[in-house]
Write a structure and sequence with these properties.
The structure holds 2 protein chains of 2 kinds. Chain A is mostly helical. In chain A, 65% of the residues lie in helices and 2% in strands. Chain A has 2 domains: 95 residues, Orthogonal Bundle (Rna Polymerase Sigma Factor, Chain: A); 73 residues, Arc Repressor Mutant, subunit A (Orthogonal Bundle), CATH 1.10.10. In chain B, helix 1 packs across helix 3. The longest helix of chain B is centred in the middle third of the chain and has 41 residues. The chains are: A mainly alpha, B mainly alpha. Strand 1 of chain A pairs antiparallel with strand 1 of chain B, so a sheet runs across the interface.
Chain lengths: 197, 144
C-alpha cells in the first residue's frame, strides 16, 4: 500500500533547510511528492491541465507558508491541507467547468487478455470516471484517497481532520452516490439497483 | 431501511480494514441479514469498478517541466511583490506630498486621484463578484 508515510520519506535535515529558505531543499521536496500531489488534484478536479496548475500553486503556497510548518512532523499531511483547499477554491472560483480528461485513464491489468472486450472496458472506465465527477467534492475526495491513493482509514482521518467513524460514513454515502450516478449515466457496468451477488 | 451495520462494518469489510475475527463475525451477520447482503453486493461492485481505474503517470518530459514551472512562478511572484511594494511606496509618498501642500492643484495630484479611484473601483468590483459567487456557490457548505 502507498501510504502517507511513503510520501514522508524526506530527510528531516532537508525539511529544516527548506524552512530556512533553501530553494534546493524545496526542489527535493517537490520532486519527492509531486506525482502524488498531481494525482490527487486530478482526482478532485478531473482536468489534467487544471490539476497540474493547481498542484503547482499549492507547492508555491506551501513554500510561502514554510515557517508555519513543524519540521518534527511529516510533510505530506500538512501539505495535503493546502492542496485540498486550493482544489476546493478552484472548483468554487472557476468560471466554467473544463472538460474532464479521459486520456489520463487506464485500467488495472486483470491478467486476462480479451481484446474483443477492450471497447466495453474503455467505456466502462470512462463511465465510472464521469460518475465520480457527478459527486460532491467531499464524497469524491474520500474515494480518491481510499481507492486511487490507497490511504488507510486512519490516514484519511488524519488528512481531513475527521474521525475514522466519519471516514467510514462518508465512504458509505459516497459509494451510494456513485452507484446512483452510474445508474444515471446508464453505463454498462451492471451496477444493479437490487445489487444481489 | 438499510441495516445500521452496513455504514461502518460494511465499509471496513469492503476495504479489508477488519481483523480475521471481525470479518468472520460480519460474515455470520451477512448470512442472516438480506439487507446487508444486497447493499454489500451493490457497493462492493462500485468499489471493484473504481479500483479498476488507474491514473496514467505522465511522461518524463511533463515531470521535468513541472519543477521548472514552479521555480519560474516563484520568481515571478517575488517580482510582483517588489513591484506592488514599490507602487505602494510611491503612492504613499505622493499622498504625503499632496497633504503637505493641500491648496494647489498639480498634475501629480490629479494622477494620484485617478489612480486611487481606479484601485477603489477594482476593489469594489472584486468584492461584489466574491459576494455573488459565495451566494451562488453550490459547495459553500464543504468544510475547508
Amino acid at each position: 500500500m502507498k501510504r502517507f508515510a511513503k510520501a514522508n520519506d524526506i530527510p528531516r535535515e532537508t525539511l529544516r533547510e527548506w524552512k530556512r529558505g533553501s530553494v534546493k531543499a524545496f526542489e527535493v521536496i517537490v520532486r519527492a511528492t509531486m506525482k502524488r500531489a498531481y494525482a490527487i488534484s486530478l482526482g478532485l478536479l478531473g482536468n489534467a491541465e487544471d490539476a497540474r496548475d493547481v498542484s503547482q500553486e499549492a507547492f508555491i503556497a506551501a513554500h510561502r507558508a514554510r515557517r508555519r510548518f513543524d519540521d518534527q512532523r511529516p510533510f505530506f499531511p500538512w501539505f495535503y491541507r493546502i492542496l485540498r483547499n486550493r482544489c476546493l477554491n478552484f472548483i468554487q472560483m472557476r468560471a466554467r467547468r473544463r472538460e474532464i480528461s479521459m486520456d489520463v485513464l487506464s485500467e488495472r491489468a486483470d491478467g486476462r487478455d480479451r481484446p474483443d472486450r477492450d471497447m466495453i472496458r474503455k467505456e466502462r472506465i470512462e463511465a465510472v470516471w464521469r460518475a465520480l465527477f457527478a459527486l460532491s467534492p467531499d464524497h469524491r475526495e474520500v474515494i480518491v484517497l481510499r481507492t486511487f491513493q490507497e490511504f488507510s482509514y486512519r490516514e484519511i482521518a488524519e488528512a481531513l481532520g475527521i474521525s475514522e467513524g466519519t471516514v467510514m460514513s462518508r465512504l458509505y454515502y459516497a459509494r451510494k452516490a456513485l452507484a446512483k450516478a452510474l445508474r444515471g449515466i446508464g453505463d454498462q457496468a451492471h451496477v444493479e439497483g437490487d445489487g444481489a451477488e | 431501511m438499510t441495516c445500521p451495520r452496513m455504514e461502518h462494518d460494511g465499509m471496513r469489510y469492503i476495504d479489508g480494514e477488519m481483523t480475521g475475527g471481525e470479518r468472520a463475525a460480519f460474515e455470520r451477520h451477512l448470512d442472516e441479514c438480506g439487507d446487508c447482503r444486497r447493499t454489500l453486493g451493490e457497493l462492493g461492485e462500485v468499489n471493484r469498478l473504481t479500483e479498476s481505474i488507474m491514473i496514467k503517470d505522465p511522461q518524463d518530459e511533463f515531470w521535468a517541466l513541472y519543477w521548472k514551472s514552479i521555480y519560474r512562478r516563484l520568481e515571478r511572484k517575488t517580482a510582483w511583490i517588489f513591484m506592488i511594494a514599490g507602487i505602494g511606496m510611491l503612492v504613499g509618498y505622493e499622498l504625503y506630498r499632496a497633504f503637505s501642500s493641500f491648496g494647489r492643484v498639480t498634475f501629480q495630484k490629479i494622477a494620484l486621484i485617478v489612480f486611487i479611484v481606479g484601485v477603489v473601483l477594482l476593489l469594489v468590483s472584486v468584492v461584489r463578484e466574491r459576494i455573488h459567487q459565495y451566494r451562488s456557490d453550490p459547495y459553500r457548505d464543504v468544510k475547508r
